[in-house]
Amino acid sequence: NGAIDSGAILYVVGTLVMKHAKIASGLSTVEGAAIKRPTVSLSQYNNAIFGTITLDHVHIRNCYSDSGSAIIIFNQAQDNFGGGNTPTGCSTTISNCKIFHNYSRCTEGVGGTIRTGGGVVGNLTMTNTSVYENYAGTYGGGMVTAAQGHEETVFVMDGCKIHGNRAATYA
Question: Which of 73, 89, 102, 132 is such that its CA lies 20 to 30 A from the CA of 110?
Answer without folding.
Answer: 89
